[in-house]
Design a protein that fits this description.
The structure holds 2 protein chains of 2 kinds. Helix content of chain A is 0%, strand content 57%. By secondary structure, chain A is mostly beta strands. In chain A, the strands form 2 sheets. In chain A, strands 2, 4, 5, 6, 9, 10 and 11 form a 7-stranded mixed β-sheet that branches. Chain A has a 4-stranded antiparallel β-sheet with strand order 1-3-8-7, with no helix packed on it. Classes of the chains: A mainly beta, B mainly beta.
Chain lengths: 113, 115
Amino acid sequence: DVKVTQSSRYLVKRTGEKVFLECVQDMDHENMFWYRQDPGLGLRLIYFSYDVKMKEKGDIPEGYSVSREKKERFSLILESASTNQTSMYLCASRRTAGGYEQYFGPGTRLTVT
Amino acid sequence: AQKVTQAQTEISVVEKEDVTLDCVYETRDTTYYLFWYKQPPSGELVFLIRRNSFDEQNEISGRYSWNFQKSTSSFNFTITASQVVDSAVYFCALRRGGATNKLIFGTGTLLAVQP
């Protein structure tokens, strides 16, 4: 089974803090994604990576950066957390060839106070 | 423009009722892919089905069935004889063909199945 894990289920940070959200997948998938989920807005893509050290902006990249130094790990960084970044963050991965479905982690609920 | 609309924000049914979740999509592509995901209270999105734009056959998997109609740009999901364990948020999503990696999600439908 594909397994995508995220470092924390719940996280509380203060405004202005630098926040790291970590995601690890164990299926050797080339592609990894970060989404945020907000009520009434569905899932919105923040960034994705199609290879190590490669990244592309999604629909809402402002205020975020990412890092992919190893194939299995994709990190989302909030350089200076703000209250409007309070949200559920979901990581996903998928392989390039064949199936196009993405496999998701359990999510991190981040609260910025 | 690519867009997915799930007009039903919340649905509440009693166990054993049948329920249909609607999904309408917009795309100008001739090749595209449609997905349904389930998000139980635990939070993790679970992949349910993928359908290619060139395959309009309906699909049945146990109590789940999907009706894909290109003429109305719809990809509806029916749960037969619903159970409490079906309670979740269900998302419909659209992906373009080709090299793009993006999934465009609808806003989700919260299904509550009462015992």
